[in-house]
Specification:
Layout: E1 4-12, E2 18-27, E3 32-36, H1 43-51, E4 58-63, E5 66-67, E6 78-81, H2 93-103, H3 108-121, H4 137-149, E7 155-159, H5 167-184, E8 188-192, H6 195-201, E9 204-209, E10 212-217, H7 219-224, H8 229-234, E11 241-249, E12 253-256, E13 261-263, E14 275-280, E15 286-287, E16 296-306, E17 311-317, E18 320-326, E19 337-341, E20 348-350
Parallel strand pairs: 3-8, 3-9, 6-7, 7-8
Antiparallel strand pairs: 1-2, 1-4, 4-5, 9-10, 11-12, 11-14, 12-13, 14-20, 15-19, 16-17, 16-19, 17-18
Helix pairs in contact: 2-3, 2-4
Length: 362
C-alpha cells in the first residue's frame, strides 16, 4: 500500500469552468479517506484525476514516492471500483475476476490463487461459475470489488459504489467494505454523496462544495465542530436547525427571533446588536416537562414522522422551520404548541456574512 499526496491539485476545463480548485491533503498508508459533497461538487472529478482518467491542470499528485501527473492509469498501481459495476456479461464471475490479471500476463497459477483468495474474502465461492445476469445487485458489486482486490494495488479508488443498491443492500455492502479495508489494511479513497456512508466508513472525511474543499477532519469532529454553514447543514440527518437574528440583552444574551428568543451561552463571545446565525442539532432539542427551568423554545407542531426507534417532529417557531429528534412517545396533534429545553453550550454560532464558525469565548 502507499500514501497519496495532493499538492494544490487543480482542474480547469477548456471553457474556464473550475472543477477542482487547489486540493491539498495527504491520504496515509492504510487510511480510508472519504470525499463527500453534493452532486457537481468535484469529488468524482478529483478521484478521476487520482486515477489518471482526468488530466491535471495544475499542482502535483504523488502515489507512494512517485509523481504521477503524466503517468498512464495502468501504470499508477491503482484499482478503481465504479458505480455501474462494469462487468463483462459474457464472462463468468471467475473470468471477470481474472480478466485484468490475464491482460497483465500474470501466471495462471497465481491468477487462480488470487481469484480463490478474493472469492473467499467476499463470499463469492459458489458464484464463480455464474454470469453477472444471474447475480443480484449486491453480488455484482462484490464481484466488482473482487476484481479490484485481485490486483493487489497500492491504492483502491471507489466511485459511489453503493448508489445503485437498495437501502438494505447498501447497509450490508457498506459493512463488507469496512471489513475488507480492515482485513487488507488498504489505502482507500471513497467517493459518495451520502453523508451516512461518509460518517460510518471514513477515518477522515473531505467535505467538498463547488470544487473547493470546505473541511477535512474525522467524522465526529466534523459533526461537532463544522467550520462553516455548508458543512454544518450538509452533515447530519435530519439536518442542523438554523436560526437567523440579532443578538439582544435579555436577562443575558439571546437571539431575537421576532416572536421568540433563543438563549445564548454567557460566554458566547458576541455583542448585543450583532447579526448572528445559530445552529442547533435536532437531538439537542429536548421536550420540556412542566415546570422545567432553564432556556426554552416554544414551537408549533406541523408534522410528526415516527420511524420506530425515534420520532422526527417538524415544527415552526415564528418564521423558522425546525426539526426535533425525540424518543418514541405519544404523538401530539398537529397544531399543538410544544416547548423544548436545550443546552446553550450545544449551540453552533456562525457569522452571517462569511458563514464561518465563530469560536466562543474561553
Amino acid at each position: 500500500m502507499a500514501t497519496v499526496r495532493l499538492d494544490h491539485l487543480r482542474k480547469v476545463y477548456d471553457n474556464g469552468y473550475v472543477g477542482v480548485a487547489d486540493a491539498t491533503f495527504e491520504v496515509a498508508h492504510g487510511e480510508l479517506l472519504v470525499l463527500v459533497g453534493p452532486s457537481g461538487c468535484g469529488k468524482s472529478t478529483l478521484l478521476r484525476m487520482i486515477a489518471g482518467l482526468e488530466s491535471i491542470t495544475g499542482g502535483t499528485l504523488e502515489i507512494g514516492d512517485r509523481i504521477v501527473n503524466e503517468v498512464s492509469p495502468r501504470d499508477r498501481d491503482i484499482a478503481m471500483v465504479f458505480q455501474n459495476y462494469a462487468l463483462y456479461p459474457h464472462m463468468s464471475v471467475a473470468e471477470n475476476l481474472a480478466f485484468g490479471l490475464k491482460l497483465r500476463g500474470t501466471p495462471k497459477q497465481e491468477i487462480d490463487q488470487r481469484v480463490d483468495e478474493a472469492a473467499r474474502m467476499l463470499d463469492l465461492g459458489r458464484m464463480l461459475p455464474l454470469k453477472p445476469a444471474q447475480l443480484s445487485g449486491g453480488q455484482r458489486q462484490r464481484v466488482a470489488l473482487g476484481r479490484a482486490l485481485v490486483r493487489k494495488p497500492a491504492v483502491f479508488l471507489l466511485d459511489e459504489p453503493l448508489s445503485n443498491l437498495d437501502a438494505k443492500l447498501r447497509l450490508s455492502t457498506r459493512v463488507e467494505i469496512a471489513k475488507l479495508h480492515r482485513d487488507l489494511d488498504a489505502t482507500m479513497i471513497y467517493v459518495t454523496h451520502d453523508q451516512i456512508e461518509a460518517m460510518t466508513l471514513g477515518h477522515r472525511i473531505v467535505v467538498m462544495n463547488s470544487g473547493q474543499i470546505q473541511q477535512i477532519d474525522t467524522p465526529m469532529r466534523l459533526y461537532e465542530r463544522p467550520v462553516n454553514l455548508f458543512v454544518a447543514g450538509f452533515l447530519g440527518s435530519p439536518a442542523m436547525n438554523f436560526f437567523r437574528g440579532k443578538v439582544v440583552a435579555d436577562n443575558g444574551l439571546a437571539l431575537d427571533l421576532g416572536n421568540a428568543t433563543l438563549a445564548l451561552a454567557p460566554n458566547a463571545g458576541v455583542k448585543p446588536g450583532s447579526e448572528l446565525v445559530v445552529g442547533l442539532r435536532p437531538e439537542d432539542l429536548v421536550p420540556a416537562p412542566d415546570g422545567a427551568a432553564g432556556p426554552q423554545l416554544a414551537a408549533r407542531l406541523e408534522l410528526a414522522e415516527p420511524v420506530g426507534n425515534e420520532i422526527f417532529l417538524n415544527l415552526r417557531a415564528g418564521d423558522h422551520g425546525i426539526v426535533a429528534r425525540v424518543p418514541p412517545q405519544a404523538i401530539p396533534a398537529a397544531g399543538s404548541e410544544l416547548r423544548f429545553t436545550f443546552e446553550p453550550q450545544r449551540l453552533h454560532l456562525f457569522d452571517p456574512a462569511s458563514e464561518r464558525r465563530l469560536e466562543t469565548a474561553a
